Amino acid sequence: MNIVVLDGYGMNPGDMSWDSLSQLGTLTVYDRTAPADIIPRVLHAEVVLTNKVVLSADMLAQLPALKYVGVLATGYNVVDTAAARQHGIIVTNIPAYSTESVVQMVFAHLLNITNQIGHFATENAAGRWSRNADFCYWDTPLHELAGKRIGIVGLGNIGMRVAQVAQAFQMHVSALTSKAQAQLPTGISKADLTQLLATSDIITLHCPLTDATKEMINANTLALMPPSAILINTGRGPLVNEHDVARALHSGQLAAYGADVMVQEPPQIDNPLLTAPNAFLTPHVAWATVEARQRLMQIAVANVKAFLEGSPVNVVN
Predict the structure, then answer these.
(1) Which of 31, 64, 137, 204 is most buried when burial is the number of CB atoms within 10 A of its CB?
(2) CA neighbor of 239 nearest in space, from 112, 154, 155
(3) Do 55 and 89 touch, CB atoms closer than 8 A?
(4) φ/ψ (deg, to 5) at 145
(5) Which strand ranges, in their side-by-side order, compose the sheet holding 2-5?
(6) Distance (Å, rounded) from C-alpha 8 to C-alpha 15?
């Protein structure tokens, strides 16, 4: 059994072992794979694992040996699943491996914005506190989370855990969700998008990217939010119109934007969010804690093993 990993570096830059996967077949791991190299590298592979390398319908048609594609992530839009099904290729993903890590990043962004940790650390490293006339200083408003209303767009695994942590901070929780109010845990109120945007101090995005949710945050919806609002996006970059968010930050229509995802990754150097005031961007690392990547590896190996044993799991096509 020939197993090929097309872009293993993102998941495992060298701090984990591939041994458990190599026990299942003849393993070749590439750190990265350019589009022109995909077909030559996997032509004779029965099992292919990919994170962000795209496997299109045209490519899949050129791979008669291929029987299984394991996506090393939860989202699987990098594979043409319909074409894979036509060719009898099983496609699997890795669900729910990074929930706790992503929730942690949501509140890392939120606490950084409300408490200005990064700002103060930078100022103090430059000697500002040492030169200060008083025992303390602050040059920006600092805010408690307790009593604030957080609006959660999407109540899947991550959205629900965000709600639980928010309640531990004594926040009021509203959610845009397909679930009925009677199905929601105590303390979570159901709201439509207009209500959510108009009444929330913090909006955090945890919904899938679909035609209906693409750029759901835009000039029109930003105008519904109070100017003091904070927007957090650890979901998908295209859930927001980045130019509209940047303009809202410049104009003061939006107080702050904390994001771990962008429309294009890596972003173009002239992306307006990179220089917008109160835009706090992390490089798509919410999923990348050691613990989450270890779970990802374990589930990926278990997915391949289940396929080889004739009982595939986490199948998405």
Answers:
(1) 204
(2) 154
(3) no
(4) -80, -30
(5) 26-29, 2-5, 47-50, 68-71, 90-92
(6) 12
The number of residues in the chain equals 317
Distance between CA atoms of residues 211 and 205, nearest Å:
15
**Which backbone phi and psi does 90 adopt, to 5 degrees?**
-75, 135
Contact present, 206 and 74 (Cβ < 8 Å): no
Amino acid identity at 74: T
Mean pLDDT in runs of 10 for the chain (317 residues)?
97 96 98 98 98 97 97 94 97 96 98 97 97 96 97 96 98 96 94 97 96 97 98 97 98 98 97 98 97 97 98 97
Q: How many angstroms separate the CA atoms of 8 and 52, rounded?
A: 10
Helices (H), the chain: 19-22, 38-42, 57-61, 81-86, 99-115, 117-125, 157-168, 193-199, 219-222, 242-251, 290-308
To which residue do tokens 């994001």 refer? Answer: 259
Q: What count of Cα atoms within 13 Å lies in the side-chain half-sphere of residue 43?
A: 5
Six token digits for residue 185: 């845990």
Distance CA 34, CA 68 (A): 20
Token representation of residue 177: 């969700």
3-class SS shares of the chain: helix, strand, coil, % to 5: 35, 15, 50
What does the alpha-carbon distance between residue 175 and residue 196 come to, in Å, rounded to a whole number?
A: 7
The span from the first CA to the last CA of the chain, in angstroms, equals 22
pTM of the model: 0.92
| Helix 99-115 vs helix 117-125: crossing angle, to nearest 10 | 60
**Interior angle at CA 103, CA 98 and CA 104, nearest 5:** 100
Q: Distance (Å, rounded) from C-alpha 273 to C-alpha 244?
A: 10
Please list the active-site residues. Answer: 236, 265, 284
Q: State the residue for tokens 């199905």.
A: 183
H/E element, 27: strand 26-29
